[in-house]
Amino acid sequence: MPAVLGEIIERKPTTLSESNANPTSYNNRFADVPSGFPKATHRSESAFARARAAQGHARSNAPPIVSSTRMKPLQNIDMSHTKSESSKMDDAALREEISRENENKIEGMSEEQRIKEREEIISQFGPGIVDLVAKMRERRGLESNAEHERPKSAMAHSRSSTAESTPSTKAARRLRFANEPAQVYVYESEPSSPKKRALALPPPPGPGESSEGIVSLGTWKGKMKPEAAEEQPPRPDEGDPEIIREKYFPTEPPPSENPSLAWMLPSKEEASQSEKGSAEVRYDLQGRVIPKHLTHTLPSHLGLHHHGDSPEHAGYTLDEILMLSRSTLPAQRATMLLVLGKIVRRFRDGQASKEEIEKVADITQKCLIVAIEAFGDHASTHVRIAGLDVLWHALAYAPGGEVGGMILGTTQLDTLPLSYFFEGALYNLTRTTVSLTSLGRILEVLLALININTKLVDDIIGMEGILNGAVRSCDSLRLEETVHGDAAMSIEMTLLRLMRRIAQTSRRSAQALIPDVSDAFLKTLLSVPEAPDESRDGPYIGVCTQALNFYADLGRYGLGSAIASNGHEVFQRLHGIVTGNIALESEVGTHLVTSWLHLHEVWIACAFNPHNTTPEHDLLWSQLTAWGWGDGLLALRTRMVQTHSASRTIWAAWWRCWTMWIRTAKVNEADRGEGDVRRWRSQPSTPWARNGAEWSLVDAAITELQSADTASKSYIESALVLHGAILLWMECQDEAFPWPTGSLMQAMQAITTSPLWTSTTAAPYDSRLLNNLCTSIIRYQEQHSQNNDSTKLVDARYSTLQHLQPGDEMLGSELISGILKRTFVPDRMEGTDEFWAAAGGPEKVLLPLYQYALWPKEEFFIAPLVPHPTALKMTTTLLSSAGAAKTPSGGRTGIELPQSEPGDWMDAPLDVLLRSGSTHSRLFRTLPQDWTASETEVVQRLLMLLVHRRVPLSRSRIIFICMKVFMLEHGQSSDSGGEVYRDSLIVRMLSDLLRPLRLSNSQQSALVGSADSSLETVAAAFLGPDQPFFQFYSDFLGLYDSNSFGHELFGTLLLPPTSGRYARDYRKLLWIDYGHTLRSIRVEVNDALCASTELKDWLWPVEGIQDGEMLGGFLKAILKGNLSGFLRFVAVHQIAACLWPDMVETENGNKRNENVLRALIASGDEQTLGEILFYHQLDAQCATPWIPPACYKAPVDMVSKRLDWIKAVAGEVALKRFPRKV
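^ RNA polymerase II-associated protein 1 C-terminal domain-containing protein, sequence as received from the core. Prediction below:
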């Protein structure tokens, strides 16, 4: 009987002779053929059939095939004939034979031969060979004993005989019935799932068995009582080392006592990883946090255990998820990316704990990199979708449903491999199989990226095919809108928002959307039915509104206005809907009509001057009149009046649009627009009739603007209403306005004192709207108020200028022009007739320089809030940002908006003049052709404006402005003409400007700011981060040394940076490095540019106590007799404080005091010694120090003590050198 193991029958190997004897064997086919080719056989039977027949013959004597997988324990198996046992016996016999031969050989050797052989072995293998051989012999003995003692298990037998029992052919691998099933070993197996229990009915009773108690389920109507479940003891973990030892090594000692089983115990590294794993946050496959107390107890069938650093813990850490998100297995990679997306969503929803937030915030960059790489993978669709899911949750998802954006800085975004994302977006958008969800998410992620960094627009435009692919994809959805419905409209809305953002970024990006993208959206305008219903057609109306806003954005550059003629029929259809069918009271209707009016306002501005569009003559005024746009606007107003349902925003938009129509008609019509004005006034409902619709709206707006509730949405709507009304009033020049000017001024005063006006966190649109409103009120007041010279209007101009935002540059030019007109009044200011007439007058001299300072960069001009024909070609972007130009060193050139102080803009012409030789090549191209002012004339009028200003300037700013006047000569050649600062009028204006800053002016002037920052802070904006103020002061001092010839005002400006507020380097530069210039600085104490409270900064702390170099500088300057006025006062104080112990107490200053005294006695004159002897000053805590002559009146007892000390140090002779009075 053949030996069997399980269901596999062990057979005796076939020998070569047996193979040749088999007539069906492969080799036997060549036996009787001398040519070596197989014998020809009949081909009526195929080779496959013949092989099956041969196999059938071979199986005729084989046992039947087994059909059951259950086996019983193996019994009475003789294991002595297996191959593994025989090989082990052969090895043992060979080892014993070699051992006997070696022992016999050693016995036949002499003692000298044995010693010699041992030495040769040791010299060849080293002295450790003896211990190694002993250990090997000991180990061999232990293994031999273990083989005799350890029982042979079925598992061991199975492993040892697997290779031998494996058949060589497919037929031999078939399972067979054993002759004796009782000899088959049955392995223990676990249930397929620990949660499932085998439920089965009992078998029917056998023959002769009783059927009592058995009831048919179809007839039984009772209730089953659940049997008490047997309490199952907790099953130990199969991976536990003790369970493994008991099952497979029952006779072995525990692993802790047995070195051969030590591998079963966890290592120290594994233990530390386990502790670390239990402390980290772990997630399940749904992105939820697994409680830490459950990570050890969750069963393994949940799929949360893996081969990570802590395999005994269920779940995945963020680091493990990130690692698996780069797996080469697409299914695993996609699964982990989906988990990562769910985690990020929990983070964005605010459901994450503090520990999670810190961890997720740290790996945000890694998450995005992994997701971008996955989205750019073209190999697996699931991986791309999963990567997009992470990007969408991280960048575009927001709980409210609007497109959001993770808090990412531009620097962080620059480090991402976004080129992979753009390539992936291009790949997906150009495929017809892109899903609805993926398309929407790709567009939302693109929009979120642009919102974070607008520079990415260039990369998107440079990736040819992305925008056109997105438009084509949405076109295909539009064709299937009956299938997709509102979802398709939502995606198209996202596409329009994306295109609007791209168009708003720059003129270049807007031009890239014409004509392919812009023409494609004409189809969107057709989606609105002729009689729209808000509840049914809301999404279609919303998409149409966005399309109108998109065309308006293009029109702000003067681009795309030809669409008005190309899509004339489409817009005529929309005109009928707006003026006749849309519900004006509905929210979607209000948005649609407002956008339609805004687009008309922009296109009318384009037709104002056909040379302002790009390309020129893209839209003509004759076309607008032929299309009847004016009649359409009046028809819309009639409907608004009759229905009484139009909102305030529709009225404000209509007023602005009609204002632009009248303004354009005045230029392009022969009657200068009077016909349109008459038609407007002759309508059935008289415009601005008291208690009419328009009158009531404006009256309510004025009342609300005078309130203090600026946080409400209606406050901004009221500002919008009043602004539109004032624009129309001024354009029509109607004298019969029903509102007194006083109420408008009260409204403006309320605006300028409101929290929204002064807030630095207000929305840019809100701030710009209030700026436009205040400017229009000022303009209207000056035209219609009898007291148009009121200083209140000038003050309002200063206040509005301070709060201008980027994009309000044209308003700034208008406000500055008004300030110049009302400041340079000959009756109030001195000046000859030649002065007022030179170069066209002060306003014409200064205004072009201010205009240049408002927009110094030709390539950067933000569109004004209200469309302006002149600004169309100048506009380079619609997005507000800082507009002041920067020099190569980072310094500001121009007016930075908004202003920190009301008068920060006033010295801008000086900045332009100082930079005119390097960074202002555009300056001379933008100046009017008749502008002939010289540098001296510019400075004269600028200083006169500063002297007669109506807003305060800080002390440091006034000083720095004066320093810049003198620095105009820096770097100029000697033959460039006379110095600007020597002009008599300029000297007088500088003196007047500096007079409030002098020490003699004890009263604080209203034109000098109370809060004063340092010169370094004030100069930083002009100089930039790369040029410190110390370098500017060094150049300033060098210019004085080489060019001033002791100019009094020039020398006065040298002193402010030498106070104790500034670093020692400034004082060292003046007192030591340029000590020879001190004799030319003639500034009296009362003429110093410092307040009485600032004087102590030059006196305390005493610098010479710790700094011998500075003390030497003071001594050298005063002993040469070159000092006078303020400088002498400072030097006397510093020397006296170092000399007399009664002024400053020092620990080890006696020796230095003696040296100072000897130097004074040796070189000082009588006046110097007397001043130092009688000098006395209040301590450093005193706010206002004494100045000469009060400081030279020391008490008699103090002078006596000083003389006694002089006598003790220098002797009686030294007393004769000191006078007894000053």
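The mean pLDDT is 81.
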